Amino acid sequence: MTQYARRLILGLLVLSSMAVIPALAQNQLSLIPEPNTLEIHEGEFVFPSVTPVYAFDEFSDVALLLSEHPYAHFTPVERIKSHKRIPENGVRLIRAREEDKLPADAYRLVVDTGGVTITAHQPAAIINGILTLLQLAYTQPDGRILPAMMIEDRPRFAYRGLHLDVSRHFYPLSFLKKFIDLMALYKFNMFHWHLTDGAGWRLEIKQYPELTRKAAWRTHVTWKDWWQNGRRYLNEGDPNASGGYYTQNEARELVAYAARKGITVIPEIEMPGHSDEVLAVYPELSCSGQAYQHAEFCIGNEESFTFLTNVLNEVADVFPSEYIHIGGDEAGKESWKTCPKCQALMEKEGLKTVDELQSYAVKRIDAFLKTKGKKLIGWDEILEGGIPEGATVMSWRGEEGGIQAANAGHNVIMTPNSHLYFDYYQSDPRTQPEAIGGYIPLRNVYEYEPIPLGVAADKVIHILGAQGNIWTEYMPTTEQVEYMAFPRALALAEVVWSDPKQRDWKDFNERLQQHYKLLQKFHVNYYRPSYRVDIAVHFNPDTLTNTVSMSTEQYGPGIRYTTDGKEPDAKSALYTEPIELSVPATVKAAYFVDSGRVGPVTMAKADVHKAIGKAVSYQTPWDTYAAEETRTLVNGSKGGQRADDGQWQGFRNNVDVTVDFERREELHRVAVDFLQDRAVNGYLPGEVKVLLSDNGKNFREAGTLVNDISPEERFPVSKTFEFQFDSPQTARYLRIVATNVQHELLLTDEVVVY
What we know:
By secondary structure, this protein is of the alpha/beta class. The strands form 7 sheets. An 8-stranded parallel β-barrel has the order 8-9-14-15-16-17-18-19, surrounded by 6 helices. A 7-stranded mixed beta sheet has the order 1-7-5-6-4-2-3, with helices on both faces. Strands 28, 29, 30, 31, 32, 33 and 34 form a 7-stranded antiparallel beta sheet that branches.
């Protein structure tokens, strides 16, 4: 046995003999993503004024990352010549051997009183160990002090990515480096750089200088203004020109900067659609031959492929990544149907549809990339018409494309807009800067599972990982990019790295509290947790009681509430656990800090009413949102802010339902809620009528209310149509009729009767 092996075994025995600190004390290590194995032991290591660094030859370069430690200073890296001559102290980067029993992509980090030892087979794994060390420095109470510990860790997925669109808005290289720094700290390893799109071309191509002289510059600073005002391009230097581009040298600089931190930069060059900017300066490549007419290359024009391969030839030279992304999404194919060149090509190649024509283009580009030693990635539209063998699919339109591709034997990167689109709202849109729409809060990201249920067991290997996408239509500044990306990116970091069996939202949220400090030190304009209180009311039909739960994005206690309809104040009850109410109540709640209310007052009604549990007949059926089917409108539970929360029931026609009380009842008040959410084409009814009957056949009108909220209202809004009778009404049957004037979706949740 060698001296190193003896020392390693002795060290591990010493660590194992130390008392393991209870789980509560382990919270002082708040790592994200959570390591697979983490043990904390008694003792600590304090970085001296200067710490020696030793490394095996293959780790000498990556050891330079230690210089980014914010609180420690290191000597120049000294070479470790063999396992027999490993120093006793300092930071030591050790090449793993068979007896270490480490997987190829894993690292082991051991801290004892003598220093830090990181052991791994590969430089990439050593980098991950060093990044863990750096993250500890930013999240510990004192970054110069480390508790004794042992971490063994490895990634769950090989592909752990973030995407950034620099076409809609251009960002300086300095910001991209900061973005890479943050990615690295959270162990992302793929940066998908969306360099070209209709809003601007962002990479120097020497053979086609007009791409950066004109296609990189537009008439308006913000994408929204440009989109709404002509969508035109200007020459560089024009007084109104807005945009920019990266030189090839700058791109190489970013590639090298990212590689040093274990991150691969994957360029995306959009084709055949989303190419308005190219065709504005090279209109001969479009089907019409005229600028500003089309966003798609003419596939029947051989010059289109000459252009694309010439561009990709330069791109391949700049980016050493094995992948190049070619887009392939949302191509408008109408021009191909009438273009003589495209139709001639389709006849020549025996192509029956324009989907097959796009597939033809993708396969030609794939064949070219293979000659450059590259692999093609495309959005899931490249499945239409068939894709080439070896191409990788990014599944963005939900999970179906990814499931289809994986089951067919193609590699897949999951990036569904249901969970991983960071341009969607992350809180109540009424409180947020304008975004493209949708709603993906932090917890939804954290609860995403990248391996869909529909993937066959023997095809799971084709799910390479997942990626968060940042489309920047509504992000004109770097500060807004940070606001939308963080902390949601941290949730994704754990999803793609850690063992899913360990994933726990409460534990993650607790660890996240220390990472706000890290983000502050990096001057990140992250989304701050909302003070808004969400109130959920769940009716129990067995006990005829309501259980009221309250939650907020804040980690600590601070919710105060009332049940008598009064505004909460600093003396109101402090919420600690769900409360049970046996009588109707109006619950109001707000968040307090140091006796001061810092958030809005929210309200919910806990109803115990006459319609609960009664039979409901549907003269018009529900559609799209079944919720709890026939129980939905009388289950005692209200819908929340989201149309898909399981309580809102959707109707494509009028709502026409009848509640049977089984006997004549005295009715004083009837109320029914509707939700308008344009993101799902949900609108409020034109009017709501209440009709009463004793026999279920002959109905008399008891009241009509007309909607007064505009269908143009941008944000989701719920409206209660409440009928208060001047004198009590008696009836066995209650009929609700709501008119669908928009011919879209009516969403309703509960018929409340007193």
